Amino acid sequence: MLTLHYNPLTVAPVIAIVLEELEVDYTPVLVDFRLLAQVSPEYLALNPKGRVPTLETPDGVLTETGAILEYLAAVHGPHLVPEDPFQAGRMRETMYYLASTLHVNYAHALRGARWADTEASWADMAAKAPHTMAASLAHLEGHLDFAPFAIGTNLTLADPWLFVLAGFATRLSIDIAQFPNLSAHQVMMHDRYAVRAARNKGMIG
Ligand SMILES: N[C@@H](CCC(=O)N[C@@H](CS)C(=O)NCC(=O)O)C(=O)O
Of all protein residues, whose CA lies closest to atom 8 belonging to ligand 1? Predict the structure, then answer.
């Protein structure tokens, strides 16, 4: 049995969507940030980074969205990784970009205290975040296939991740309509059965 520790307003819904895609049974456990549950001793024992998502598996505990996705694909759904090595490389290129650049750009709007100590610095980072986030989205808009999926004609691990993180744009008052490919991808993913299933369980904020 799998247990997913998540918060609906974060990147964690990516994992819920993939679990729904794969029709794998799992137990969702809400990590309530309002109660600072992510830094409770119980949660830190599971994930010392104090972040979501965390997945408890029969093999042990996994953290990091990309690592969890790769595990789920390897165990339950190899079809979510392109067979062609180059296309698989492009999928991971996208995933690493989402994790290390776009998500970090977004976090500067809300989590300045990770990087600086003064309120002026936080305000400066928050003011810059919509610009760096929009630049990341523009990059993805121009470089992914959208055929109709991010990498080619089949859903891959990159799609739910792209869907969730590009969806954060509106929180920074970025008009996603300026990116027609990303907009169409958002609409397509929003209506997918797995996304609706995760949403119905309250796992997507
Ligand atoms: N690199 C991690 C990032 C995880 C992460 O930063 N999660 C955020 C929410 S999107 C979090 O748990 N933040 C809690 C906090 O900062 O207290 C991943 O991709 O899984």
Answer: 51
Any domain includes 91? yes
User: Structure pTM?
Assistant: 0.98
80 C-alpha to ligand 1 centroid (Å): 23
Distance 52 CA to ligand 1 centre (A): 5
Report the pLDDT value the prediction gives residue 42, as an integer from 0 to 100: 98
Q: How far is the CA of 183 from the centre of ligand 1 (A)?
A: 24
205 found inside a domain: no
Give the model confidence (pLDDT) of 47-68 as tens digits. 999 999 999 999 999 999 999 9
Cα separation, 157 vs 62, in Å, equals: 16
Residues 6+ apart with CB under 8 A from 154: 79, 82
- Please give the average per-residue pLDDT across 155-173, as a whole number: 98
Average pLDDT over residues 135-145: 98
* Residue 162 CB-half CA count within 13 A: 35
Residues with CB under 6 A from ligand 1: 10-11, 38, 50-53, 64-65, 99, 111
Count of domains for the chain: 2
- What is the pLDDT at residue 51? 98
Domain containing residue 70: 2-79+195-200
**Residue 164 and residue 107 share a domain:** yes
